[in-house]
From TrEMBL:
<dbReference type="InterPro" id="IPR009056">
    <property type="entry name" value="Cyt_c-like_dom"/>
</dbReference>
<dbReference type="InterPro" id="IPR004852">
    <property type="entry name" value="Di-haem_cyt_c_peroxidsae"/>
</dbReference>
<dbReference type="GO" id="GO:0009055">
    <property type="term" value="F:electron transfer activity"/>
</dbReference>
<dbReference type="GO" id="GO:0046872">
    <property type="term" value="F:metal ion binding"/>
</dbReference>
<dbReference type="InterPro" id="IPR051395">
    <property type="entry name" value="Cytochrome_c_Peroxidase/MauG"/>
</dbReference>
<feature type="domain" description="Cytochrome c">
    <location>
        <begin position="229"/>
        <end position="403"/>
    </location>
</feature>
<keyword id="KW-0408">Iron</keyword>
<feature type="signal peptide">
    <location>
        <begin position="1"/>
        <end position="20"/>
    </location>
</feature>
<feature type="domain" description="Cytochrome c">
    <location>
        <begin position="46"/>
        <end position="151"/>
    </location>
</feature>
<keyword id="KW-0560">Oxidoreductase</keyword>
<dbReference type="GO" id="GO:0030313">
    <property type="term" value="C:cell envelope"/>
</dbReference>
<dbReference type="GO" id="GO:0020037">
    <property type="term" value="F:heme binding"/>
</dbReference>
<dbReference type="Pfam" id="PF03150">
    <property type="entry name" value="CCP_MauG"/>
</dbReference>
<protein>
    <submittedName>
        <fullName>Methylamine utilization protein MauG</fullName>
        <ecNumber>1.-.-.-</ecNumber>
    </submittedName>
</protein>
<dbReference type="GO" id="GO:0004130">
    <property type="term" value="F:cytochrome-c peroxidase activity"/>
</dbReference>
<keyword id="KW-0349">Heme</keyword>
<dbReference type="InterPro" id="IPR036909">
    <property type="entry name" value="Cyt_c-like_dom_sf"/>
</dbReference>
Length: 442
């Protein structure tokens, strides 16, 4: 890893935390911003209601029929419910026939805690690291900026431009509601319309409805319910720096009864080199790679941006047990595989990378960026993994406690999940496809 990072004095600020310097166009903070308290969010109820309407409106896509909720299903913790071809490939389908999203879609619950982008250098770190920003590569820094992604991507909602979107909204009752809230210009001027939609959606995402904290783990934190022995063992392994070491990236504070301290991500980035998903349309081209954060680094003029190729934002793990596919490229089909990957990526790479081609989704010239130092991914090939099979089961049992009450019934039976563990993904549709009888757990 190249460490030299130039610093410049800049004016960019994150509210409440002073930044004396910046790295490229991103502020460098002297302290990690404290996690926002749940009570800090007081969005205007009218805006929340309007944002909710926008979120579920299927007319906003081209062709019509694909709302935000089509890929962020409220019945699945606002992660996608995949069917048919989308389930086979592992990522959601867009509004246009045959178009698939380039990545897996995350849950949108707890989105209000995602901070704006910043750099921070820990005392024991030799260089500053980036945090925050929306998307797996942090390329958007606000909801207003973020929604341009889905609205104008040909692979998602397919609108050609703010102008065509504006023509669609003007004259509808949604247009009237937006006029009432933001004034007539917000519906007449295409750019303002995108801003208004962003403001409304942001308010919806800030509402308590989008941050329920109703999981068994939350009740455990509040000392209202115990966890089972297997779940407690899983929690201990998750935190133990010599075993799972998961909490070093998937941050949690067991001693705090405030659940917003335990979002199971520090919003940092890492290169853990998940296997390539050969079924993604773009991956038909062997030269195509999704390199993640370094594209953002280039756009924001961070020095030596290539050092961030292969980095993706650490996923929050709340409601992870109701996901159908895992990681930014949807390569894993069971939670157990996602956990087992960490245990044996380094000790038995052939189990995960077809033909033993280690780090097959990171271009050769960036493979030096891959994290080979963090437990449990730091062992030599052929040595004993840091986690036994039983310990992997315990961590899965613990992760299942992070499911909000409303979604508990969606969790697959752990034994069935284990039985269909696929390990190394295969390009052949016959082996990679999930059999229909296993496809849905509902
Ligand atoms: C066709 C499927 C699809 C539709 C429709 C869609 N999204 Fe997404 N969404 C995705 C995917 C895929 C990602 C991850 C993309 C990435 O990381 O680059 C994503 C990511 C996001 C994120 C970032 C979350 C985070 O933690 O950083 C937000 C916020 C979001 N979507 C909101 C919306 C909103 C609002 C709409 C409607 C205007 C919408 N999405 C419509 C597929 C979709
Ligand atoms: C060095 C940091 C780091 C450590 C340690 C780590 N993770 Fe992760 N985790 C990540 C990153 C980064 C991602 C996103 C990777 C991607 O999408 O390609 C991720 C993704 C995941 C996902 C997929 C979530 C989703 O929504 O698809 C699961 C599950 C997960 N981690 C569980 C664990 C467990 C269990 C452990 C401990 C055994 C662990 N992680 C240790 C950084 C880490």
């Amino acid at each position: 890893m190249r460490l030299s990072i130039a610093l410049w004095v800049a004016a960019a600020l994150i509210p409440g935390v002073a930044a004396a310097e910046s790295i490229g166009m991103t502020p460098k903070l002297d302290a990690v911003p404290p996690p926002a308290e749940s009570t800090a969010f007081k969005p205007d109820p009218n805006l929340v209601a309007l944002g909710k309407r926008v979120f579920f409106d299927p007319r906003l896509s081209e062709p019509q029929g694909t709302s935000c909720a089509a890929c962020h299903d409220p019945g699945r913790a606002f992660a996608p419910t995949l069917k048919g071809e989308a389930l086979r490939i592992g990522v959601p389908a867009g509004s246009r026939a045959g178009h698939m999203a380039a990545r897996n879609a995350p849950s949108l619950l707890y989105l209000r805690y995602v901070p704006q982008r910043y750099f921070f250098q820990d005392d024991d770190a030799s260089f500053p690291s980036p945090f925050g920003g929306f998307f797996a590569d942090g390329r958007a820094n606000s909801i207003a900026e973020q929604i341009r992604g889905p609205l104008f991507s040909p692979d998602e909602m397919g609108n050609r431009s703010p102008r065509t979107l504006q023509r669609k909204v003007a004259g509808t009752e949604l247009g009237q509601a937006l006029t009432q809230q933001f004034g007539a210009d917000a519906v007449r001027d295409p750019e303002r319309l995108v801003g208004a939609l962003g403001k409304a959606l942001e308010a919806y995402f800030q509402s308590d409805e989008m941050a329920p904290f109703t999981s068994r783990f939350d009740d455990f934190l509040r000392k209202r319910t115990p966890l089972s022995p297997a779940e407690m063992r899983g929690l201990a392994l998750f935190r133990n720096p010599d075993k799972g070491n998961c909490a070093s990236c998937h941050l949690m504070v067991e001693s705090s009864s405030r659940p917003e301290r335990s979002l199971f991500t520090d919003f940092g980035y890492d290169a853990i080199a998940v296997p390539r998903n050969p079924l993604l349309p773009a991956n038909k081209d062997a030269r195509h790679f999704d390199v993640g954060l370094c594209q953002t680094a280039r756009a924001l003029k961070w020095p030596e941006p290539d050092q961030w190729c292969g980095y993706f934002r650490t996923a929050g793990l709340r409601n992870v047990a109701v996901r159908q596919t895992f990681m930014h490229n949807g390569v894993f089909r069971t939670l157990r595989d996602a956990v087992a990957f960490y245990a044996t990526r380094s000790t038995d790479p052939a189990q995960w990378y077809p033909g033993g081609k280690r780090f097959d989704d990171v271009p050769a010239r960036y493979q030096g960026n891959v994290n080979v130092n963090a437990v449990p991914m730091n062992r030599r090939a052929g040595t004993t993994p840091a986690l036994t099979e039983d310990e992997i089961d315990d961590i899965v049992a613990f992760l299942r406690t992070l499911t909000d009450a409303r979604h508990v019934a969606l969790m697959p039976d752990p034994a069935a999940d284990k039985a269909r563990s696929a390990h190394a993904p295969r390009a052949s549709t016959k082996t990679a496809a999930i059999r229909p009888d296993q496809a849905n757990t509902r």
